[in-house]
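Usage

Read records sequentially. Each one opens with the input sequence:
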Amino acid sequence: MGAELGQYSRSGRSAPCPVTHRPSEGSRRRHGTVPLLEAGDIILMEEFRVQDTTRRCKELREKGVLFVGSGVSGGEEGARYGPSLMPGGDKEAWPHIKKIFQSVAAKVNTGEPCCDWVGEEGAGHFVKMVHNGIEYGDMQLICEAYHLMKDILGMEHDEMATVFGEWNKTELDSFLIEITANILKFRDSDGKHLLPKIKDSAGQKGTGKWTAISALEYGVPVTLIGEAVFARCLSSLKDERVQASKRLDGPKMTQFSGNKKAFLEDIRKALYASKIISYAQGFMLLRQAAKEFGWTINYGGIALMWRGGCIIRSAFLGKIKDAFDRNPDLQNLLLDDFFKKAVEDCQDSWRRVISTGVQIGIPMPCFTTALSFYDGYRHEMLPANLIQAQRDYFGAHTYELLWKPGEFIHTNWTGHGGNVSSSSYNA
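and closes with the structure output:
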């Protein structure tokens, strides 16, 4: 599906459609599409950066033209059977396109369409961006589970395929788990498994990176998606890694001596707990963006939109919708009783997997950052007080006392410094 979905006239007159009535390329470059439109027309566009969508909404609103930017997810299967659609922009356009969008979108078992209005201006594209970031995280988490199964437990590909097939009948029921089972058992024309022949250097189109950049911009600790992006970057250093593998030593412990079946269940639980963290962080970013831009977002509705048609579709998303149905103002999924208990039930397994993986030398960037986030989030007191003291010591950046929030203080730590504090920035 291309970037330009089309144009729609709510007035009933025929609107110029870029598919059937397209000006010459030279004319488009000189004048664009806007001069061909009238007040009340609707432009539908797919997959642009949030800033571009917001700018287009504002510019076109001045001309009376309505702009809708819609995220689209589903890949080849979504194109054939219905994708997940995430429209946002000028809400005045939604009544005129709602029936079209929801009839085209994928449907869940209840018949509900995986499409609803997301929010103002660039909200639709922002939600799609976060969707793609979560997709990066899900894929990396599954890869880490695969790595542990292959290199610690010494499992064969058909055996791993069977396990992923069984996991797909549990809380991990999802499209990505399903296709992982299919990939693991797939054999090439020579009868050998195809997966071991594929170069271990992952590509990316940028949306995961955009999510990580947005997280940094808005100060939200979306650590798991960031690590998933960096894992792909590290994988691309194939030639360097080949050389490093010949020169850099790992731990002495290289063999697993525990109970294989029990450790396999530990991996499943670690994957589930880490997945919860990934989604919790993603919804944290959505909530912060809504505050930044003044969007009104239905978070439970977003989870419903992702339940079918898209790459991250899974039964798990129904639990997220339930959480926001119980509390529309939920600050973090981890504070919902269901997810709180789920993580607590997985916690021991999660820690065993990471400890064992670290001791044997298996890289687990997303498993480990997920646990670090959980431990950081549940701590009332973090060592950031030392960071504040350090910043004030070398740069007079000030600090707050616990019992005097909002009052910024500078200390003359050395006895020969000044009393002037910095106020130019607060990093």
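Summary fields computed downstream for this record:
- Residues 152 and 179 are 22 Å apart (CA to CA).
- Residues 385-427 form a domain with the Single alpha-helices involved in coiled-coils or other helix-helix interfaces fold (CATH 1.20.5.320).
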